[in-house]
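User: Some background: our group keeps a shared notebook of sequences we're curious about, and every so often someone picks one and asks for a predicted structure to add to the entry. Today it's my turn. The entry only has the sequence so far, pasted here. Could you supply the structure so I can complete it?
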Amino acid sequence: MGAKCSRSAAGSCYRVSFSQRAEIVRIPRYLNVRSNTNVKSIECYEENGPSIELLKEHEFVPSDISGLDAKIIERRGKCNFNITWSLGVDGSIIFLKASKICLQKEGSRSCIRCDYTERFQNQTMLSGEKWQFYYIGFPVDENNEYHIEVFNLPPPNPGLDPPKKHIKRFSPGCKDSVLKYCKTCIEKGSLWVPNITVCHKKSEVVVNFTASPFCSKYVIRLHEPDPSGDLYDHIVVTKGNDTRISEKILLTDQSSRTFKELIPRFPLCEGHCPRHAEHQELCTEEPTDVSTDFVGNYIIICCLLASLFLIVCMVAALLHYKRKYGAGRNWALSPLMQHIPATILVVYSQEVCFQHTVLAFAEFLHECCHSTVIIDAWQKLRIAEMGPVQWLATQKEIADKIIFLSPNNANPACDSTCRTTVDSHSGNSECMFKFAFNLFCSDWKNQSSLHKYMVVSFSEKNPTNSLPSPLNICPKYVLMKDIDSFCRDLSEHKV
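Assistant: Of course. Here's the predicted structure to add to the notebook entry:
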């Protein structure tokens, strides 16, 4: 059923199409019905005043609508009501000229009138079901009460109340699964994840958080440990291009204030924006102890040596491979170096030490294989804006290869210190690992898609036992034992 546009003295006219805000068509499953007995077109326009049919008497009038419902939907960042209704099944349908939809909230009222340009010849659709319609166009704000009514024209004669269907709807807040993706809620921080980390020291408190592109002012609130302690607000103003903020708050000698919450000042909510108290402690200053310092230094040296050893092994393996096959031959890494670099998404669990395993492996891929490497820790702001699932789906389309890293058998104390003193996102990496596993596992059932995935381990003793069993179907490599086959298979995307 098409839709035309016409002018009315009662209001401005809207052309109804899928690209405009106002839409009114039959339910899509009926769109393919074409018959001289069906309605051919509808003219829709705004009519906030009384309809002209109210001013005169009518010998015959249509019956009331049969059913009415309204749900909130999100389209292209805008939230609107999807209002659906159906017509009654009786002979009076031939006198139906128009339907009027009105919405009222907080004392304001707006109406849309839709004229049926041709008479209904049948009481039902050709399928035998009632005529059904939907309208999308009334915007929805969070935490509001709405009254929706729909009635047919012409109405009963003057002096009588027109028959109409009326429903009441309450819109939830920005935490709702639909509204949080709408533009107004996004600009109030509904998708913002600050990833707060705090370091308490004797003389200062260091607060780190990810800024939102929609907010330039934040309040860091500190408080005394006792319940009756005073509050202290520290204001932070960003420059607009900041992504990760690190703020040092100096303390007096007598003060023992600690972090309480981060309060954003989004322009659309100002003093009523959601507050964020959840944070991760990165360090706690303790009295100096010689034995403790010695153990700490030993563990740090252990981590550095492990990282250096991994890099040296990778370089040595590459030199050995080149010496074995000669510089003049078209050796396995040449496609990566001669053609467009491969784009590689690296997925890792919280058991993989980020500093001396993930970053070292990424450096190897970038420097030796000339590859473009994607790691979640480098795109935190993008993940916060898009959501982890959508971000992973996007990277899946971009990446030529997706590599799952298996934990290596390094020193447990070294790994523990690495995660607690250097890497502060182990929980986030585990969450991202689960999202990636659930999102990509369907590809492993298809042989044509399996070549895109690889499992890499740095230990022959426990190459893949710590990973979920479905990953066993993916090609597995132990570095540096399988460096030849790894480099060859990594270059297949361009050969």
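Suggested note for the entry: DSSP finds ten helices and 22 strands in the chain. Residues 22 and 137 are 4 Å apart (CA to CA).
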